[in-house]
Amino acid sequence: MESIYNLDYQNSSLENKIVIGFDRISQVFKTLLIEESKHYNLSPIQIQLLIFINYHSENKSTISYLSKEFNLSKPTVSETIKTLEKKKYITKISDKFDTRSYFIQITDLGKSIVQQTEQYVNPLVNIISNISEANKVMLWQSITNIINELNNIQLINSHRTCTNCQFYSQNNNIPYCALLNQVLKIEDIRIDCPEFK
Ligand code: SF4
């Protein structure tokens, strides 16, 4: 099979160029995150875990959940959490039903670090916000379709998407959320919903 990194082959097809475009954009996320981490003496994964814990519920702030979410081994997540605890950015709270387990809670110091570091995505936010509404909706439809396909072949752990949710249904191809009690337009589809079941 021809390589999409071969420039003649890459430039001969739109799908090849789109894949290379995603590759470029994902590099930008990595670069921005690495740059941000240098300012705070944190590793990129430490920043990502702090941001995730800050914005998700307790049951998602456990070693098992985080290791699945970030595709990391449990020992790697445990070590990262230990370091964040030493820095006083998180605390461990014992599970009252199972004393061997705990969930992770962010401290006020951790929250202030999140407020500063989460800005690393702003250059991308600014670019996207300048796209027309119609093009944003088309882009969102393509992105959610790609995420669903990646989820189907288990290359992405996006459990919390509408199409995976028990409140989601389709009537005559029209998506509907029974919890919000509303038809879901393309722009309403979520890929990380706090109400997901
Ligand atoms: S909006 Fe939330 S609750 Fe409704 S279907 Fe989507 S994921 Fe489920």
TrEMBL record:
It holds the Pfam family MarR_2. Residues 15-152 form the HTH marR-type domain. GO terms for molecular function: DNA binding; DNA-binding transcription factor activity. Keywords: DNA-binding, Transcription, Transcription regulation. This is MarR family transcriptional regulator. It comes from Flavobacterium flavipigmentatum.
